[in-house]
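For the sake of transparency, this paper describes our internal protein records without simplification. The remainder of this section carries one protein's record, kept here as part of the documentation:
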Amino acid sequence: MNLKRLTAVAGALALAAFLAGHQASAGGPAAPSGDIVPGEGCTSILVGRLASTDGSVMTTHTCDCGTCDWTWRHVPAADHKPGSTRKIYHISQYKTWPPSEGLKWDAYKKDFAGLEIPEAAHTYAYHHGMFGYMNEKQVAIGESTIGCQRKLVNSTPSAKLDLTMLTLLGMERAATAREAIQVMGSLAEKYGYGFHDDGEMLAVADPNEAWIFEICPVGPLWTPESGKPGAVWCAQRVPDDHVSVCPNESRIGEIDLANKDFFMASPNVVSLAVEMGFYDPQGGKPFNWKKAYSPVNGSAASTNGRMQRLWRFFDIVAPSQKFKPETPNMDLPFSVKPDNKVSVLDVMAMTRDRSYGTPYDPVMGIRGGPFKNPNYYRQTRVIDHGLAEYSTVTQSRAGLPDPVGGLVWIAFGSQDTSCYMPLYAGMTEVPKSFMVGDHWTFSRDSARWAFDYTDFHVQVVYSEAIKDVQAAQAKYEAELVARIPEIDRQAEALFRKKPAEAARFLTGFAVNNATTVTNAWWKLGDDLLVKYNRLYLYNVENRRMVRGQPATPEWWKRAARAFDILMEPDKK
């Protein structure tokens, strides 16, 4: 290599180092050294009632699949005759069918598990997407896959219940969070858990409590005839003044089953770990759920940001505690008291977090390109990584009738470019546009496509177009949050007189709002196309083009020129 080229290369490398801020590596992360490789799917946040500004208990779920079904359904309450049975189906989190063959919540009945269980005398109404999210008693759920020891996986037909089916049964049969955990746990023990799923976490809440419920299969050799439980599970309550999170990692550590106010578990919670060789009771250490069933080694720092969501959440809610990214995730606390109480808007903002300003910032240096697009550089796993089918924020609120107190806020597509829309627990139907849609078939009848349509146009000039989206979010999201107390008041007054009138009122309000917001996002996508067409800024009001804007910044042009020099072939 000649001196001129060597000098150019050195300059290019120096520039790259400067632009990257001498911080986190741009290379791929080191693999965690534990038995379980953490997934990169869903993040679930939990907020206790005394940790929220309005006394609501909150959960979240970012359904981060990328190709899964995004449609929603409402299931009405029902009374069942004595002797009735409930058919059990295998419902994959990931499987979808072409619209021509029927959407998921029609076609899943092709996968009958070969089991019918005694039906409950009365089943509650609820809303569900990939999982059950909220029933008429304000029982709420969020989800995050955590994985488990390989020996526990049971994908055989003996495991009749997978996670989606469990959540639907929990919605149908439970009036409280504790009851939902007992329903799901006991059914999994009796009929076997697994098939499509392995280690899973559910955030289970009601107006008074929030719980982390974790469940694993018990291995492929289990049969009902064994007389042993067909699942192993544990649940820990989040203290009322605390918040917690599950970012695809088991969160329950040492357990105290004598403290029934804060712990529940299957009868085999310790004995199975001993039997499988995951725990030695003679080893002098207390039993630790996550170390036994779903151990993961690594930290935000040691994985170059792949496992930074847990650290990042605690850093957001309790910066005064100065949690370090070098701390192993297994050593971070189960929950923490936030420095300040959090509102529903705060929680929505957390679901949109991209770790800006941290060593794992996806737009640091040249990572985001000229328009600081956080979706270009996915070597770090942030909470909002742009692949969500939808995200939810649930609120279970004491002091209101259950149909009024329960709220599911849903945002379709990536959280940063979408808008949260409320569904009340007492609604009798969900918007029709929420019930249709498919990744591979564009449809203007599907609400999801409206948000993807806007998202697509944001990607081109992200740093500029995201400002237009945030303005729309302030109008259609933040302003609506401020109006909710008045909607509550009107609905509660109706409920005290005629519950059916309240149900019609809440349904009409939510459906009309969803239609308004969906139409606004279709228009927003159109407006972005016109405003930033061909990477220029078009002033629609003045009917003129502002040349050179949005101009690519000078630093990016210099970096591009330096890279060109770096890639030039040697000239002999």
User: Anything to note?
Assistant: The first strand starts at residue 44 and ends at 47. The chain is about 30% helix and 15% strand. The mean pLDDT is 92. The chain has two domains: 3-24+536-567, 44-527.
